[in-house]
């Protein structure tokens, strides 16, 4: 079975740099294809276990990444007001059904007394670290806000996430378009006026 050829897998590991065990994924995908009544050896499916293994290595890469690496750079801008990056698009995977949920994340924080801020792109990278794992939306939201608090030491932080869950659209209750909104707020942004300002900036489109 050439799909499980060790050299092929080694090459894929090297290419992705991921410790995700692609050999096991390939075996499992072949098994799933057989279980649904497909022929894993038909032409169109021959490469599928390998493709899925490679895709999973990418989709679950966040399991092997650390927020501290992403948020390690900061600069002194002496800015002590709200910084908000909104409409960060992302894809994650529902841990209940292993199908995607996707939407946008909005991340805001009030820098520490010294006014140290991180690069704006780092906030988008932080979303990826936690989105590329088997997830639920609530945990994704709190993991992001808690990582911001731990690594940026801001006066406060807010994360709002809006998603459509494929497990609610393509199967099960079948309600495409239904959106789930979650939020998590820490520190000074919990105060009513600041929270209202952040929320109106996030949701005012
Ligand atoms: N709270 C929360 N629930 C989620 C998330 N993603 C999926 N779910 C829900 O997880 C639940 C799993 O319910 P179960 O009854 O165990 O599984 P199920 O029979 O497949 O449920 P249905 O989707 O209703 O068919 C469903 O209600 C999903 O809508 C998420 O991010 N957060
Ligand atoms: Zn689901």
Structural descriptors:
five-stranded mixed sheet, two-stranded antiparallel sheet, single chain, binds zinc ion, 205 residues, GTP Cyclohydrolase I, domain 2, 8 helices, binds guanosine-5'-triphosphate, GTP Cyclohydrolase I, Chain A, domain 1
Q: Can you walk through the features of this model?
A:
It is built from 8 helices and 7 strands; from the N terminus they run ααααββββαβαβαβα. The chain has 205 residues and is an alpha+beta fold. The protein has 2 domains: 2-59, GTP Cyclohydrolase I, Chain A, domain 1; 72-203, GTP Cyclohydrolase I, domain 2 (2-Layer Sandwich). The strands form 2 sheets. It has a 5-stranded mixed β-sheet with strand order 5-2-3-6-7, sandwiched between helices. α2 crosses α3 and α5 packs across α6. The chain is elongated, with a radius of gyration of 20 Å. The relative contact order is 0.13. Guanosine-5'-triphosphate (GTP) binds next to α6 and α7.
């Amino acid at each position: 079975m050439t799909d499980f050829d060790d050299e092929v897998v080694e090459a894929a590991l090297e290419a992705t740099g991921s410790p995700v065990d692609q050999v096991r994924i390939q075996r499992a995908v072949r098994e799933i294809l057989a279980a649904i009544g497909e022929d894993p050896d038909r032409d169109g499916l021959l490469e599928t276990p390998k493709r899925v293994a490679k895709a999973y290595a990418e989709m679950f890469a966040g399991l092997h990444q650390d927020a501290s690496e992403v948020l390690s750079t900061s600069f002194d801008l002496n800015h002590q007001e709200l910084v908000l990056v909104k409409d960060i698009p992302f894809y994650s995977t529902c841990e209940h059904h292993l199908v995607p949920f996707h939407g946008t994340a909005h991340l805001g924080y009030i820098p520490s007394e010294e006014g140290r801020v991180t690069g704006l792109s780092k906030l988008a990278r932080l979303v990826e670290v936690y989105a590329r794992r088997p997830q639920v939306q609530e945990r994704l939201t709190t993991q992001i806000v808690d990582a911001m608090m731990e690594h940026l030491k801001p006066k406060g932080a807010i994360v709002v996430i809006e998603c459509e869950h494929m497990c609610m659209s393509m199967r099960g209750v079948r309600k495409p378009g239904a959106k789930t909104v979650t939020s998590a707020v820490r520190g000074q942004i919990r105060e009513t006026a600041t929270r209202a300002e952040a929320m109106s900036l996030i949701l005012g489109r």
